[in-house]
Amino acid sequence: MSGPDTSTDAVTPTRVGVVVLTMGRRPEDLARGIRSVLDQVDVEVDVVCVGNGWDPTTADPPLPPDVRTVHLPENLGIPAGRNRGVPHVVGDVLFFLDDDAFLPSATFLADGCRLLAEHPDLGLVQPRVVDPTGLTAPRRWIPRIRKGDPAHSSDVFSCWEGAVLMPRPAFDATGGWADPFFYAHEGIELAWRVWDVGHRAWYAGDLEAAHPVIDPARHEYYYRLNARNRVWLARRNLPAVFVPIYVGSWTAIQVLRWYRDPAALRAWFGGWRAGWREDPGPRRPLHWRTVWRMTRAGRPPVI
Q1: 277: exposed, middle or buried (C-beta count within 10 Å: 0-12, 13-18, 19+)?
Q2: Which keywords does UniProt give here (predicted)?
């Protein structure tokens, strides 16, 4: 039996293609996030900054010279904006970062790439998210029904989208983020698609990304797009028998959650109706074997 490899040949670092999405409204946060990526060690990063309805070449302060830019004259929405950045980076691993998030540890990407290398069945990794000022993180940042300890890692069936690591072949196999969604629930569809192509989506409680605690309802379209995209999730992805079950369970949940807020419910049901009336894009139902795998892992796609 041969002994351990004691050669001193340098190991080629993993190259990570990083897509940073921004509308140009948070220049200081954007600069901090990009700097936290460029400061990563033991990996090679290839970074593109995608300006969604904004030209990143006009950034003040200017972006570092080794960061490429993509200018989308029109705001195409969050998932479509991320997708537009992917062809402009190289690397076997992709990392998506929103402009108000950053990486507190310089080994974040190396640690994440090591996790992917040790577990080749993983197709998506979402880190634990913390507020940099110490505020208590919202429970929604832990993408599982039984939240438990935020430091506990587990399989998941959705993801918080602000910092996501994926092997590029897995991303390509899924077809990418759901372009039509614009905002909300694209992380659920991406996680479902990861499971459907034979991989697992993973919440890594031992990896940490930073993001301020912000009320998502600050967006005027929050309630409407949450409801529309919940219906679209079902119409695009679920076997037909599950579509009314999934939509019905979430309708009941939202009524119980917001029955004291009639304005929120009105906006939500406006989006619900739009979800049935408007075109959600191509339909690709999950395979039955995927439904079975998800069920065995603790989350059948009915809620």
Answers
A1: exposed
A2: Glycosyltransferase, Transferase
